[in-house]
Design brief:
alpha/beta; 23 strands; globular
């Protein structure tokens, strides 16, 4: 957006300026477009600065000084995940930039942009958001520097952090600032974090050890003790820290949850003690249900990061109002005919819901969008399909996806609002499907049928990741899916075959995949279609041994699957799996000094080996696999027999080399997948 565009609109200034690391595409799949349209609908004048040159503050002055505040987002992806592979190599492209050109946003974009906004116009409030800010709201393990970093809030020097889906928060912030409230007064908004120096009056501070005890502290120079004291009974206090409230033991009083704040171990404490890091991670994940979550506080130096409970999920009419806004669904005209890969992927897709109750430990959806499914109405979804048909250039009748974070969680929810509000479980489907979960796929089947019947709609594909453990509960859904909505291939994410890593991922056993595969093949045959499953797997996930990867490779061979591209585990900030990777403990269970240890493949050689097992059919990997199999005492798997994994050194090509028609070679994901 430029000053000339402001003049065309008759504006002399913007109320709010959003700075984003993505190209500007006015589509409901892009966060900056959603927030911009939501604020516009509230009567605010919103400007967008897209992918500014961050080397100086000049580009941040393009639209002048905002009347209310700057909103800063790294974009749809975390900037570090966007820039680097799971092996910390620099990526050569960026799907969210015109031409796919890499390098148009900085590392740690939220921090850099926020500081430049502050430099451009001193005194203007700066509010940070996006998945990058959400996943860095507390002290977190940073894979790229292999250290624990502070919350992004003090690092960016922002006034307020918005986490999760931000519509509720940003509307309240904008109206309150417009009404004359100071940004410093906005400390009570759910789904936000702010800095403070003391616990507000009327609040009860509960030490995290009252909720989950990590055990005796390590006997080395104590980073937790209060200045001048020897008491180490609380792990939440750092040197020089002043307690502002008496910590009251949980057993001594019936606490008001709405006015209770849990003090996590400080940044300085978790940075120096992996066990306390795992403890803090476990506590943070326990406080993610909007129905019962309490506020959290974590000391960073002389100040606290105060994190309010998560936002209340949007009701159906509310989420409809967000998606019914007048998006053009087009890139900004300034890009001309430039190819923007992310836009090509989603321009004919429709998001039907938000959230995911799967709780996969390596995934960031739960930490960002929450476990409670927020579903749109049929009417809103069908209207969007009609708008695509009638208004989107180049549309030829095919909807590329009707889904969301997960393809088949539409309208699925706990059967009891009271149970849902009280639940503290991290997943509704692990270790098995909760008896209180409604798994009825009938509303989704009905939606598919209505969407297919719309005039001008030729095909509707389902490209979002499918929860096959839920799908097998509804064979009629699988039949509907494979008969009408699979374009030859369906992606599915078992992630592994062995119980060890699957339990650490909180993924179902491979038996669920086998049941789904049988139903998929049965209904594909019934429909007279030749269709294939494309399974995704993760290498080097915490809890994975060389034996686990060998067994997975043997399973792949038995089932004639040959992955072309594989994904090694990438520890994203704040995920439970990242806490396992960093701490060597399992935050899915109570944390203590003697609690369960979790092995993680960290060395490059072992990570490469685990990826090689997934691509057992690639001759490039055979020398490494031969050496490994010999060391493992499994030389019996080297040879040309049907039960052997790789050929011996005399073979130029694999002896089992037929490429099964039921297992086409397909590219797997490059980066975190939604499921």
């Amino acid at each position: 957006m430029t000053m000339a565009e402001l003049e065309q609109l008759g504006w002399d200034s913007c109320d709010i300026i959003i700075v984003t690391g993505d190209a500007y595409i006015d589509h409901p799949s892009f966060g900056m477009a959603v927030i911009g349209r939501v604020l516009e609908a509230q009567g605010f004048r919103v400007g967008i600065i897209s992918q500014p040159d961050w080397k100086s503050a000049d580009a941040f002055r393009t639209l002048g000084k905002p009347n209310l505040f700057f909103g800063v987002t790294a974009g749809n992806m975390d900037s570090m995940v966007n820039h680097y592979t799971s092996e910390r190599r620099i990526r050569s492209d960026d799907a969210y930039t015109p031409g796919g050109i890499a390098g148009k946003r900085p590392d740690r974009a939220v921090t850099v942009y926020a500081q430049r906004c502050r430099e451009a116009f001193k005194g203007v409030p700066v509010i940070i958001g996006s998945i990058e800010a959400s996943l860095r709201r507390i002290a977190h393990y940073d894979y790229w520097s292999d250290t624990v970093r502070r919350s992004v809030l003090p690092d960016s020097k922002a006034d307020l952090l918005v986490y999760g889906n931000g519509e509720r928060q940003i509307i309240e912030i904008a109206h309150r600032v417009a009404a004359g409230e100071s940004i410093r007064e906005l400390s009570d908004i759910r789904g936000t974090a702010t800095m403070c120096r003391e616990i507000p009056s009327g609040w009860t501070e509960l030490d995290s050890t009252e909720v989950d005890t990590p055990g005796a502290l390590i006997e080395h120079p104590d980073p937790y003790a209060m200045k001048g004291a020897q008491d180490t009974s609380t792990c939440a206090t750092t040197a020089g820290e002043k307690k502002t409230e008496t910590t009251i033991p949980l057993s001594h009083i019936r606490l008001n949850r709405a006015k209770t704040v849990i003090r996590l171990p400080s940044y300085e404490a978790v940075k120096g003690d992996p066990v306390l890091y795992a403890h803090a991670s476990r506590l943070m994940h326990l406080e993610t249900n909007p129905g019962n979550a309490r506020a959290l506080v974590q000391r960073h130096g002389e100040r606290d990061v105060w994190i309010n409970p998560p936002p209340i999920p949007l009701a159906t009419d509310e989420i409809d109002s967000v998606f019914d806004l007048p998006y053009s669904r087009l890139p900004h005209p300034s890009y001309g005919n430039a190819h923007i890969p992310a836009n090509e992927m989603i321009k004919y897709s429709v998001n039907i819901m938000r959230g995911c109750f799967g709780g996969c430990t390596f995934c960031s959806i739960t930490e960002h969008e929450g476990r409670i499914i927020q579903s749109r109405s049929e009417g809103s979804i069908l209207r969007e399909i009609e708008n695509i048909r009638d208004k989107t250039p180049g549309f030829a009748g095919t909807i590329s996806d009707l889904g969301g974070p997960t393809a088949n969680m539409y309208r699925l929810a706990c059967s009891s609002r009271e149970i849902e509000a009280a639940c503290r479980k991290p997943s509704c489907v692990f270790p098995g499907i909760c008896k209180n979960l409604n798994t009825d796929h009938a509303p989704l089947i009905k939606l598919y049928r209505k969407a297919r019947s719309l005039h001008g709609i030729k095909r509707i594909f389902i490209a979002s990741g499918l929860r096959y453990d839920l799908a097998v509960e509804s064979p009629e859904y699988i039949e509907e899916l494979v008969t009408h909505h699979v374009g030859g291939y369906l992606k599915i994410a078992p992630e592994h075959t062995e119980d060890g890593p699957l339990n650490k991922m909180m993924k179902p056993g491979i038996g669920s995949f086998d049941r789904f595969q049988k139903l998929f093949e049965r209904y594909s045959k019934k429909a007279g279609k030749k269709q294939f499953l494309i399974p995704y797997f993760i290498a080097a996930h915490p809890g994975t041994t060389d034996e686990d990867m060998l067994n997975l490779a043997l399973w792949l061979k038995r089932n004639s699957f040959r992955p072309d591209q594989v994904q090694a585990f990438l520890p994203s900030p704040m995920s439970t799996a990242s806490a396992m990777y960093h701490s060597g403990r399992n935050p899915l269970r109570k944390i203590g000094r003697g609690s369960e240890r979790v092995f993680s493949p960290r060395r490059k050689k072992q990570r490469d080996l685990h990826k090689a097992f997934l691509r057992y059919h690639d001759p490039v990997n055979w020398p490494l696999l031969r050496d490994t199999l010999k060391k493992m005492g499994r030389s019996d798997l080297i040879g040309n027999g049907p039960d052997q994994l790789i050929p011996d050194s005399s073979m130029g090509r694999p002896g089992h080399g037929r490429k099964s028609p039921s297992s086409p070679r397909r590219h797997q994901r490059r980066g975190p997948a939604k499921r």
